Amino acid sequence: MDGGWVYLVTGGCGFVGERIVELLCQQDYIREVRVFDSVAREEVEKLSTGKKRAPTSL
């Protein structure tokens, strides 16, 4: 595996979808969470892009 899992959450702007995205972002083994929703809402602006966590140095 190349650095972790990537998840696509459909309906990510809905009540359940938002909570699923929040929970997925807390997991260490997940590299990226992508959100797709047909309804654009202001809450989408709260989502960040880029690396989930900064790499730690050895």
TrEMBL record:
**Name under which the protein is recorded:** 3-beta hydroxysteroid dehydrogenase/isomerase domain-containing protein
Annotated InterPro entries: 3Beta_OHSteriod_DH/Estase (IPR002225), NAD(P)-bd_dom_sf (IPR036291)
Specify the 3-beta hydroxysteroid dehydrogenase/isomerase domain's residue ranges. Answer: 8-49
Named from the GO MF annotations, one term is: oxidoreductase activity, acting on the CH-OH group of donors, NAD or NADP as acceptor
One biological process term from GO is:
steroid biosynthetic process
What organism does the UniProt record list as the source?
Answer: Malurus cyaneus samueli
